[in-house]
User: Which sequence fits this backbone?
């Protein structure tokens, strides 16, 4: 396996964090991973809000709790809020924000940290979170990404390839194709 494929397989969602702060250069390296995400026409329609202030994290946690499973926001030393401007890229803005989040999540893992994905888009929490952070009306909030040193080691699996991969035509499985 390469470093990247190993990182993809060993990354897990982390919802319990140590209090230990994350150095500023590390936060910037994570944000760089988001900046280098791919997007349709290289539109880069994203903005990232880094929240470290205790009171603001608590408010985000309260608002996220309206409709989503939100563990970790108040405890993690920081949360990155992934925002996107749909007017900059009307067809694929959700993918853009999602890829940026995924890049940052793999970066946190490769830097020895943990993170999670709190899904905010189209949830009851989206507008209240925009209010807390002063995010303009035209922007949408894809997700919150609490980041910190992991205080748990969860294990989660995936469906086997045989269950999800077809060759040449939908429904033609791996073994049938090889026969
Ligand atoms: C679009 C999306 C939304 C998610 N929303 C939440 C959420 O609101 N709360 C949460 O705790 N985890 C959330 N997750 C994390 C998933 O639950 C997690 O990725 C999945 O269970 C697989 O676990 P793993 O990432 O540890 O492999 C979300 C993940 C994605 C991709």
Assistant:
């Amino acid at each position: 396996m390469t470093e990247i494929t190993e990182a993809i397989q060993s990354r897990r969602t982390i919802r319990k964090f140590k209090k230990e702060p994350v150095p500023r250069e590390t936060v910037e390296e994570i944000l760089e991973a988001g900046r280098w995400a791919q997007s349709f026409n290289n539109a880069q329609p994203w903005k990232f809000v880094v929240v470290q202030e205790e009171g603001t994290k608590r408010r985000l946690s309260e608002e996220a709790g309206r409709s989503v499973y939100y563990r970790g926001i108040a405890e993690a030393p920081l949360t990155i809020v992934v925002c996107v401007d749909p007017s900059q890229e009307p067809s694929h803005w959700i993918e853009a924000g999602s890829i940026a989040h995924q890049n940052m999540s793999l970066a946190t893992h490769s830097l020895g940290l943990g993170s999670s994905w709190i899904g905010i888009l189209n949830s009851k929490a989206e507008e209240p979170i925009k209010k807390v952070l002063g995010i303009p009306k035209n922007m949408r909030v894809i997700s919150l990404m609490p980041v910190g040193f992991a205080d748990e080691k969860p294990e989660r699996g995936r469906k086997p390839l045989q269950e999800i991969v077809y060759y040449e035509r939908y429904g033609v499985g791996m073994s049938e194709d090889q026969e």
User: Anything to note?
Assistant: The chain has seven helices and five strands. The pocket of flavin mononucleotide is lined by residues 12-13, 15, 68-69, 71, 116-119, 154, 156 (CB under 6 Å). The chain has a mean pLDDT of 95. The CA atoms of residues 94 and 142 lie 7 Å apart.
